[in-house]
């Protein structure tokens, strides 16, 4: 009898893992937190993967960056190269350049890790831009997600700076030319430009201090801030959840999707390894930034075709396309041909930061929005986004005008003047064409809603007329095409009130009314069919 009791006690004793879980839950409350949060429902859509690519690329950057930090020597001190790469032997190089070549040639797996790091940086920034454009075009930045939009925009800006600082560390001819370009832009700042340059470089360019300073900023300051913003961004995404596209059963007050555990976690884990694998294959087959072939940086030399990575190409395009403009006054020279583009660089990006707040001010919409819009249903916003991207693209062409000229045997002056004109013309045309294109898609949706889907079957009517048979859409399809809102523009109202008193309007109110009329007034969109129109057009045998 006692043996049976001891056997039952052994079976009743919890295992080591269960005891550990109980110990942690008693001190951290993990079980209760997981019970309430891990089963949260999230909507699902293929476009959400761009945000996941951003996250996974960032994690890969941290992992590969830690490995590279173990071997990289951030020093501008000059040494004579005696490594294994024969063409460089006997050359005077900086320790930063020598250690970069050693990582590529002598460290086991160093070249692969270094190229994964570089490719991950490019993919990280590209995915961030596409992810932000997805949020922009679908209106997913509206209340209550404005703060998360600011976090995402800040991450993009910090990503640009992190890419610039990391791109400059190897001290090869390409990165050194980029640092020289940045120093020239800093010198163009009126009054304090020289002082800023001396402060950053520790004296005359290039100096010995810039590489250690860039290294500290690149591996400590900026990644630390970005990691904090990524955590805050994910917490807000988890709290607000993704916006869901309108459809059957999907409203502003519910969420239709899959639970976070185990569905989302399983998909996320698999997708992480897919991204890591794709970047590894890309790094293994496509060489990027071969510093041993480019050679060490020398301040007295510059190579043809020296281009920054794509995400900073538009900043160089601003300066290359700006006409030379100098003002000499009181013994000082103002390089406005450099300073104006240098100042426009953050302003172009800041426009996207402020757009959610500008749009909310114009519409006066203070409601919460948890459903995403189809881009065609807001032609003005979609046109603005495409115009911004077209400006970015035309400046990117300007930043590589020498490569376009040599590759396509064109005049570099012709390309420069085309870009100068295109900066003003192309965004305007892109806005107009995109807006008209969205209106055409809205009209096509109107036709599909009231007439149904074309079946390809031809029917002979009793009076001899041939018509194509249309099949009515399902209620779910009709809901998708007609559930969107079409906001009415803000109006000032009558100039004289009911008591005959002349009303006064502030400048901001008049500006708001003009912008609202331009974005949402008559002719800016195709009104969706009403229920009465649908009944009238489908009441008889019209098809």
TrEMBL record:
Domain Cytochrome b/b6 N-terminal region profile: 20-246
Cofactor: heme
Transmembrane segments: 48-72, 118-137, 149-169, 181-203, 215-239, 271-294, 338-362, 383-400, 412-433
Recorded topology in the membrane: Multi-pass membrane protein
Gene Ontology BP term (one): respiratory electron transport chain
GO molecular function, one term: oxidoreductase activity
UniProt xrefs under Pfam families: Cytochrom_B_N_2
Recorded catalytic activity of this chain's protein: a quinol + 2 Fe(III)-[cytochrome c](out) = a quinone + 2 Fe(II)-[cytochrome c](out) + 2 H(+)(out)
Main location: membrane
Protein name: Cytochrome bc1 complex cytochrome b subunit
The keyword Repeat appears for this protein: no
Keyword Iron-sulfur: no
Organism phylogeny: Bacteria, Bacillati, Actinomycetota, Actinomycetes, Kitasatosporales
GO CC, one annotated term: plasma membrane
Entry EC number(s): 7.1.1.8
Subcellular location as annotated: Cell membrane
Keywords: Cell membrane, Electron transport, Heme, Iron, Membrane, Metal-binding, Respiratory chain, Translocase, Transmembrane, Transmembrane helix, Transport
Species this protein is from: Streptomyces tsukubensis
């Amino acid at each position: 009898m006692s043996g049976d009791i001891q056997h039952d006690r052994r079976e009743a004793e919890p295992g080591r893992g269960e005891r550990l879980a109980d110990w942690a839950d008693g001190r951290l409350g993990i079980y209760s937190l997981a019970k309430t949060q891990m089963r949260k429902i999230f909507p699902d859509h293929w476009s959400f993967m761009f945000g996941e690519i951003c996250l996974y690329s960032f994690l890969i950057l941290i992992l590969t960056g830690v490995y590279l930090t173990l071997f990289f020597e951030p020093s501008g001190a000059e040494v004579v190269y005696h490594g294994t790469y024969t063409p460089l032997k006997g050359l005077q190089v900086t320790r930063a350049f020598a250690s970069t070549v050693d990582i590529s040639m002598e460290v086991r797996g160093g070249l692969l890790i270094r190229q994964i790091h570089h490719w991950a940086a490019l993919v990280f920034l590209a995915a961030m831009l596409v992810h932000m454009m997805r949020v922009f075009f679908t209106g997913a930045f509206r209340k209550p997600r404005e703060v998360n939009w600011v976090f995402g925009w800040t991450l993009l800006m910090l990503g640009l700076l992190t890419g610039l600082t990391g791109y400059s560390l190897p001290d090869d001819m390409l990165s050194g030319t980029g640092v020289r370009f940045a120093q020239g832009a800093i010198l163009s700042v009126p009054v304090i430009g020289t002082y800023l340059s001396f402060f950053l470089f520790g004296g005359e360019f290039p100096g010995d201090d810039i590489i250690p300073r860039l290294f500290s900023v690149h591996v400590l300051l900026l990644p630390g801030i970005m990691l904090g913003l990524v955590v805050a961004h994910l917490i807000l995404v988890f709290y607000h959840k993704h916006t869901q596209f309108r459809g059957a059963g999907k409203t502003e007050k519910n969420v239709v999707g899959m639970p976070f555990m185990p569905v989302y976690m399983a998909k996320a884990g698999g997708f992480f390894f897919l991204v890591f694998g794709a970047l590894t294959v890309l790094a293994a087959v496509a060489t990027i930034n071969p510093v041993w072939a480019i050679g060490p940086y020398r301040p007295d030399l510059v190579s043809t075709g020296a281009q920054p990575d794509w995400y900073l190409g538009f900043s160089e395009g601003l300066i290359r396309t700006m006409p030379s403009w100098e003002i000499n006054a009181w013994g000082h020279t103002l390089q406005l041909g450099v300073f104006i583009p240098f100042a426009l660089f953050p302003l172009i990006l800041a426009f996207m930061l402020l757009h959610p707040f500008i749009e909310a001010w114009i519409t006066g919409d203070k409601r919460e929005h948890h459903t995403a819009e189809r881009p065609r249903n807001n032609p003005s916003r979609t046109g603005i986004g495409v115009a911004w991207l077209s400006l970015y693209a035309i400046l990117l062409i300007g930043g590589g005008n020498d490569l376009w000229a040599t590759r396509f045997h064109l005049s570099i002056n012709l390309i420069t003047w085309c870009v100068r004109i295109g900066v003003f013309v192309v965004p305007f045309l892109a806005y107009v064409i995109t807006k008209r294109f969205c209106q055409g898609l809205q009209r096509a949706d109107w036709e599909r809603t009231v007439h149904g889907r074309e079946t390809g079957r031809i029917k002979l009517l009793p009076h001899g007329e041939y018509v194509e048979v249309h099949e009515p859409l399902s209620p779910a399809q009709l809901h998708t095409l007609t559930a969107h809102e079409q906001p009415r523009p803000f109006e000032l109202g009558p100039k004289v009130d009911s008591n005959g008193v002349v009303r006064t309007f502030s400048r901001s109110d008049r500006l708001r009314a003009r912008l609202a009329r331009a974005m949402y007034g008559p002719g800016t969109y195709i009104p969706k069919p009403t229920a009465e129109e649908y009944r009238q057009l489908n009441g008889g045998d019209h098809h």
